[in-house]
Structure prediction request, 273 residues.
Amino acid sequence: MENLWELYKSGEWEIPFLTFSIYLFVSASFIFYLIIVASRNRNIKREKLRLEYNVLIEKVLSSIIFEDVLYAEIKNDKNFMVLFDTSFFREVLTETLINLHKNYEGVYAQKLEQFYKDSGLIKDSFKKLKSFNWEIKCKGITELAEFNINEAFDQIIACAKARNKTLKITAINAGIKLEGTKGITHLTEHTDIIDEWTQVNIISAFKKHDIGDTKGVELLLESQNTTVVSLGLKLIKELKLTQKVPFVAELSTKAPNTSIKYEAQSVLQALTI
Prediction:
């Protein structure tokens, strides 16, 4: 210990220490630079591939939608199948498939859903649900919900118990899209704030179901989460659920705060005019 103290007082350590620090800084900077360059080159390469893939993907999906070509026929295209074995190609294909599905309805949408199943892309989505990365899980949930894979409901809604807020609301939103009021129980128990944009998405998901007089929507008005209560009021007003008027009237007299009270009165007035 005394030797170390003497070395420290002598100052002989300063030059070697500074030299080492400079070399370390230069090396770290160079490595960081190489990482940035490699990442940039990788992104450029992926974008070039994406453009190349899109030409083939659009041609294939167009034949499926408008020419009634089945996946069994597409499998005979060796060039397509070689690319289909790469994960990035399947990623681009799924993204394009989703974008098209959002813009088509009826028979066209059903054809895209069938291709999603027949091609095995559905398996990729289910695998994503098992990922430890919440972003990948969200992507899998979104894909399965978009293509109306009802058998995924239990696995998706299980993610509503996750700690990550985004994952929780994504799972609940997808569950409602797939099964309507069956997902309300999980939404009622939701403890995090639901922003306006998410509320719009959830209302949109409900609109896909003819919920009629199904019991459940009124349960949202009993939630301890005021943003969930507000969502329930918006749903009742948007879907014109006049049969829920008694529940809204009760809430207007027992509201947890002034904001909810005024919103309930506004919904009550809109439904009784």
In short: The chain is about 75% helix and 0% strand. The two ends are 89 Å apart (CA to CA). The CA atoms of residues 17 and 23 lie 10 Å apart. Residues 14-66 form the longest helix (53 residues).
